[in-house]
Amino acid sequence: MAPADSRLANRILLGLIVGAAAGALMLVIGSFAPGVLDAARGLSTAVLDPFGQIFLRLLFFVVIPLVFASLAAGVAQLGRLSDLGPLAGRTFALFVLNMAIGVALGLVMMNVLNPGGRLDEATQAQLTREYGGAAQAVVQVRTPEINFDTLVQMFMPRNLFGAFVGDNREALGEMLPLILFAILVGAAAAQLSAAKREQMRSALEIVAELMTGIVHFALRLAPYAVPAMIFSVVVKVGLDVVIALGLFVLGCLLVMALHLFGTMSIWLKVGARRSPIEFFRKIAPVLVTAFSTSSSNATLPTSLATARESLAIRPSTAGFVLPLGATVNMSGTALYEGCVVLFVAQVFGVELAFSQQLMLLLLAVLSAIAVAGIPGGSLPLIAGLLVTFGIPAEGIGIVLGADRLLDMARTTVNVGADLVTAALVDERMPAGSSSPG
Q1: What is the mean pLDDT of residues 275-293?
Q2: Which CATH architecture has domain 3-428?
Q3: pTM of the model
């Protein structure tokens, strides 16, 4: 890691700590002077949230061109389409295995701790009253049945650009058509003559580098935007709900940390022959960005830059695995979905048998693949899973108070797992399978 990168990561982390501490202090003050807390929440809504959006949207500006250019260039750089099969096969196998392990760990934790069964009826009624309206709004966005026709629509809509242009965040797999189109463009480029293929690859690399330059502009703003966003989250979420759901939140955070730093460390040591400590030190800026933005898509530009510059992963591997992972490799999200469904089931006294929990594992993996890489993108899917297992869908309102914090944590797991997967895939690629960028 370059000294400048290290200093930036430290500044962002310091901003996180300062913002969280200031928010907690404001909650304490608000317990004695409610007007002060109301003013802080008003300030957050009017000033801090829009300021944080400047940072977020600066990153979102580059997502579509960067995903397209990186993925198409990654496929084109393979040179031979026969190399795409092993690359894609290893990548998807690791994605599915990663998510399945995450969900399994989450379900084991929920069965052992049984946090939902520890909430008294008064707390349950209070949380349902407080978040019932928000929950109903989420439930209205229903998850379509996953079948062959749905998959065709997700990957190949009638209007390619309409799938990812506009504010259509409820659409499942909104980035999947872009992913498929980029792969097709890269595959077609791989069939060109060597000179034309090199020209195409060079043009795509230039676009990717330009977008990376914009990322660096955004990162200069991060040490100021991050504390603003964190302060807003703390003063709005409040500690009462977090305390009421403390065991659930703590359990989720611990199992996410176990999956990211435990499971992924084993993968790094055994599969990629890398030092886990060194690896996580190098990707620290990426993890901090993921935690503060709660968005895999917003973090993708930073992930690509880190994979190439700090981890020395082949551009063809990073360009293929990371954009794809930001869309389909949602191990933290899959883990969280399983935990929430089982938690709400415990709260409402709905027992899920072992066979039903196995089905929950499968559905959590499939639904996580369809989650858009944006903050809160999994909430509609969780509502659909609740209905699937006969659990009152309004129960999602119980976890909405703590969802923001857990959204930040699961996004960190998602992004970290993407980088680990890229390292594993890159280690297994033949030495001559890509041309350096």
Answers
A1: 89
A2: Orthogonal Bundle (1.10)
A3: 0.62
